[in-house]
Amino acid sequence: MASPIISPAGARSRRWAGGALVAALALTGCGAAATDAETDPAGDPVAGGSVTLALDGDPSCIDPAQTSLTNTLSLGAQFTDTLVDQDFETGEIVPALAESWEVDDDATEFTFHLRDGVTFSDGTPLDAAAVKTNFDAVIDLGAASFLGSTYLAGYVETRVVDDSTVTVVFSEGNVPFLQAAATATLGILSPATNALSAEERCRGELVGSGPFVLSEYELTSRVVLTKREGYDWPSAAAGHDGEAYLDEVVLPIVAESSVRSGGLQSGEFDGIFQVAIQDQDVLAAAGLGVVERPNPGNVSALFANTYRPLVAEKAVRQAVQKSIDREEFQIALGNERYAIPTSVLSETTPGHVDLSDELVYDPDGAADLLEEAGWVLGDDGIRERDGERLSLTLFAGSWSQAAAELTQTQLKRVGIDSEIIVPELSQSFQLRSEGDWDYSFSGLTRADPDTLRRDYWSGGQPNSAAHIAPNPIDDLLLAQKAAADVDERLEIVAEAQRALLEEGYSVPYQTNLQIYGVADTLHGLRLDASSRLRLYDTWTSAQS
Fold it and tell me: Under 8 Å CB-to-CB from 353, ≥6 apart: which residues?
């Protein structure tokens, strides 16, 4: 583990303050090896050229502060820089815009010392005042920045100490903030960009300091990134210094997976986002590269709504947990690339613990629990008690409809009936917030175990994926956020994972995966610690 980066002024801070926090939260079962998460370098990089990468859908809102979509956050990582970064393999926090930093003993004040000479692509200096403007603007976005507002929970202010020194202040301990400062969600945008309305930012008028410039965004059509001339401040996680190798990256929006795959095989595309399951082996057999990495954070799961009478019953929740056959999910909806979940957190998440014993498929055990609770099988194979049928409402999105249908089948095997609701995308957030459902389907990507608080803390509604009434696990979820001692935080995170499974608040079914297809002429494409695409080190050997 690398030594923490602490300036002399920060000698009083805890050992993780300069960057060792995430490294200390060991990446147990690290998942994809480096060779899986980046393309073969294939010789010395060559500067120049244009490549075409097919996006898997419209970013909708291209502002990284206002989205949770992977493709949008991957785009944001190209034209913004962050205060710190995460080593792509170890997850260690490393310098980026900030050369060094200190954190006070309570994790309420984070002081960053900025690099000199950094500018936004409009020529504006990236100084302490610009950082303050950026974080204040995230707070002003409110619910529109639903990830950013979570990352900045308890935000008080950002103090400008001098042009190159800034202190971010929270009302309570916010240990995960250091990792959040490495995400595209909190990427630093120019003061001019932050002066725009939320709607204007969504349309793509965004200026950052990153290695690429967002030069074009045509709704439902394409995105174009061009090399930032004079760029010379990459993070310590990058593979080289100076400007990006590529002159231009053209990203047509191609929603149909077969069209993306066909375009890669025909040479129309140099790479494609999110290779569909049915195309993965086809591309590999054709000699095309596949770059993959499991997402860190909360795995795909059924999220309980304990405000509903049936789900408030622990026996029902535990029976649902035992009714899910995760191997069947892997076979039916994935392949061997999609790891069977072993906890609420994926194996690439700092603080993950293997709780496979809690996730054993046990339909007989589920039936016993329900029988003991008075739920007996009716003539139609569905359980009932006192004239009430055991019937659950499953709230799914278009992306999780197949998972909901398989869940419905598995629940029926133990006598639980279910109805599936799939709302229009425009209505999904509102309807989920209203809570007229028993279980929803979701997941959350972030390379920090604070994702547990984001999705399972009862005080996080309506942004939480689960709707859980106040309970003792709340204390654990809040305590891990404030625990400045690494070992203490690890213990709390482990206890929280175990409790969420035992209580049936989380019912994991599949690990999420980022997977890209690439031509043999595309090199140095990398997936970072959050499994987001990084193109700074990417180059092409197909020079025109």
Answer: 28, 343, 345, 493, 494, 497, 498
Q: How far apart are CA 535 and CA 74, in angstroms?
A: 9
Indicate if 243 and 318 belong to the same structural domain.
Answer: no
Q: Where are the alpha helices (DSSP H) in 203-325?
A: 257-266, 277-285, 314-323
Among 173, 196, 219, the domain boundary falls at 196
Tokens matching residue 110: 């984070």
| Domain count of the fold of the chain | 3
pLDDT at position 34: 35
Residue 69 forms part of a structural domain: no
Query: How far is it, in rounded angstroms, from Cα 452 to Cα 23?
Result: 19
Same-domain check for residues 241 and 139 = no
Q: What is the dihedral of CA 183, 189, 195, 196, to 10 degrees?
A: -80
Q: Which domain holds residue 410?
A: 297-511
Q: Do residues 345 and 424 both lie within one domain?
A: yes
Of 46, 51, 39, nearest in space to 248 by CA: 51
Pair type for strands 391-395 and 439-445: parallel
Mean pLDDT of the chain: 91
Pair 269, 185 in one domain:
no
Distances (CA, A) of 220 to 55, 58, 215: 10, 5, 16
Residue type, 385: R
Assigned domain for 68 exists: no
**144-195 tens-digit pLDDT:** 998 998 899 999 999 999 999 999 999 999 999 999 999 999 999 999 999 9
CATH number reported for the structural domain that contains residue 483 in this entry: 3.10.105.10
Is there a contact between 443 and 297 (Cβ–Cβ < 8 Å)? yes
| Percent composition of the chain: helix, strand, coil (DSSP 3-state, to 5) | 35, 25, 45
Q: Cβ–Cβ contacts within 10 Å for residue 236, how many?
A: 17
Q: 462 versus 75: which is more confidently predicted? A: 75
Amino acid letter for position 324 = I
Write down the pLDDT at residue 463: 64
Q: Angle 45-55-126 (CA atoms, 0-180°, nearest 5)?
A: 65
pLDDT, tens digit, 9 for 90 and up, residues 288-314:
999 999 999 999 999 999 999 999 999
pTM above 0.85, yes or no: yes
How far, CA to CA in Å, does 10 sit from each of 6, 104, 138, 164, 452?
6, 8, 27, 16, 30
